[in-house]
Every structure is written in structure tokens, then in C-alpha cells.
Specification:
By secondary structure, the chain is mainly β. It is built from one helix and seven strands, in the order ββαβββββ. The chain has one domain: Beta-grasp domain (Ubiquitin-like (UB roll), Roll), CATH 3.10.20.30. Strands 2-1-7-5-6 form a five-stranded mixed beta sheet, covered by helices on one side. It has a two-stranded antiparallel sheet with strand order 3-4. A hairpin with a 2-residue loop joins strand 5 and strand 6. About 4% of the residues have low confidence.
Length: 114
């Protein structure tokens, strides 16, 4: 694009995408349990899927909770777009990561407070 001054302006570089596995699936470890999801899935979405795949049907033995409030109540994804901070978990040793904004990677380790 040419500016009035005669200079040209280059578009910003495209952001890097998370590497995709050859199979189209990635495996992460959530609270010590392996979880395999399609590449491109957010950690929050993987947790929702995990709760629906539990024995006994949706939310059977696994409650959808990523952390606990100061009063001990389960907290989980609410807005799904990084504004509410309710989906925070420890990801690869980094605390308070918004899981709705984090794409699953092979070998990722997620620890919840729930």
C-alpha cells in the first residue's frame, strides 16, 4: 500500500500457528490423565469434552471445574473469549493461564485447582 508521502506500507506478518500433528490429534496431560483432542482445540474446550466423556454421561464422575474460588466453589469456563478469567489453570508450569485462549499442544501439561 502506498502512502501519500510515497512510502510503501507492508502488511503486518501473520501470527504463527500452533504446530499441528501429522494425525490431526494432540495429546496433553490434564491432572495426570492423558487427553487426546483434535489439533486446534483450546484447553477449555478439551476440558468440556473431557467432562462429557466421563463414565456415567455428561459431568458424571468429573465435574467441569478448572479451579476453586476463595470459598471453595468450582469455577470453569464462562465467557470463552478471555475476558472473565474463570477458566484459569496452570499450563506447562505457568499459573493463571486463560485456557479458553490457549491451544492444546502435544505434551502440554495442565493442572487444575479443582
Amino acid at each position: 500500500m502506498e502512502l501519500e508521502t510515497g512510502e510503501t506500507m507492508e502488511p503486518p506478518p501473520m501470527p504463527e500457528r500452533a504446530p499441528r500433528s501429522v494425525s490431526g490429534l494432540v495429546t496433553l496431560r490434564v491432572d495426570g490423565e492423558d487427553l487426546t483432542v483434535p489439533a486446534g482445540t483450546t484447553v477449555a474446550a478439551a476440558m468440556v469434552n473431557r467432562s462429557h466423556q466421563s463414565p456415567g454421561g455428561p459431568l458424571g464422575s468429573r465435574r467441569l471445574g478448572l479451579r476453586r474460588s476463595v470459598r471453595g466453589e468450582l469455577r470453569g469456563p464462562l465467557c470463552g473469549m478471555g475476558i472473565c478469567f474463570e477458566c484459569r489453570a496452570t499450563v506447562d508450569g505457568h499459573p493463571h493461564v486463560r485456557t479458553c485462549m490457549t491451544t492444546c499442544r502435544d505434551g502440554m501439561v495442565v493442572l487444575t485447582d479443582a
